[in-house]
Amino acid sequence: MNYIKHLNGVYIQFSKDNRLNPTHISLYIALFQLWNYNRFPAEFHISREEIMKLSKIGSTATYHKCIKELNHWKYIIYKPSHNPFKGSKVKLFNFESSYNEDINLNNSLNEQALISNININKHNININKPIYKKEILNFFKKKNWPKSEAEKFFNHYESVGWKKSNHQIENWQAAAESWMLKLEEFKVKSRKKSKTNENDLPLDHFQDNLHTNQNKNYDEPL
User: Fold this and answer.
1) Residues 93 and 188 grouped into a single domain
2) How many domains does the chain have?
3) Where is this region: Disordered (predicted)?
């Protein structure tokens, strides 16, 4: 299952299907997110409350209407459960070009678009961006790295659109490894420094030619 190819494929279908409104798309993306978290099983259980929260749907009637329409239009297969202790089941179709099953999206759609015909520029696609901050916190915790560094890492790259040297980050885990290695290098340099000026500013991850490591007194005349 290719995350990017699937989303590109389904977005093509969205753009061609005039029956859809933003609520349908929001609901589908919420279902896709759970499908992703469950590692793309053939089908999986869902909770109405959880899906409504993820998709920002406030009305139960709207939720039922949209999920039934997505099922009718063959974006998903929805198997409702009338047992309050047992969630409904959902199956999502794979919209990759390698998907072998025939998916007919009714009369308003011309034909299934093939993702293989799309020219994907990897430099413009954030292939492995963390979706939630929790992913980064868990990764740093697993590595026994400080939580504070996880916070700094997330806040920095979130603020720059997950880019490094004007290129989209394709693997945030590798970027995190580099982040911690750079931190260790700064610590080693700091320990080796025999004479430390008390007015020096502390080293950080983003020191460059626009920064100074001296606290200047601007009250003194030039």
Assistant:
1) no
2) 2
3) 190-222
Domain co-membership, 30 together with 90: yes
Residues 97 and 175 in one domain: no
Residues of the chain with pLDDT > 70, as a percent, come to: 69
Classify residue 96: in a domain, yes or no.
yes
27, 33 Cβ separation under 8 angstroms: no
Query: What is the b/e burial string over 172-202, where b = at least 16 CB atoms within 10 angstroms of the residue's CB?
Result: beebbeebbeebeeeeeeeeeeeeeeeeeee
Alpha-carbon torsion (66, 45, 136, 96), positive or negative: negative
pLDDT tens readout for residues 3-57: 788 888 888 888 889 999 999 999 999 999 989 888 889 988 998 899 999 999 9
Element (H, E) at 134: helix 133-142
- Integer Cα distance of 55 and 174 in angstroms: 31
Query: Tokens 């790295």 label which residue?
Result: 145
Query: How far is 191 from 181, CA to CA, in rounded Å?
Result: 16
Q: Which of 120, 143, 168 is the last residue of a domain?
A: 120
CA-wise closest residue to 158 among 130, 181, 134:
130
**List of residues 6+ apart from 106 with CB closer than 8 A:** 73, 74
Tokens for 171, please give them.
Answer: 């693997």
Query: What SS3 class is residue 100?
Result: coil
Cβ atoms of 8 and 118 within 8 Å: the answer is yes
pTM of the model: 0.44
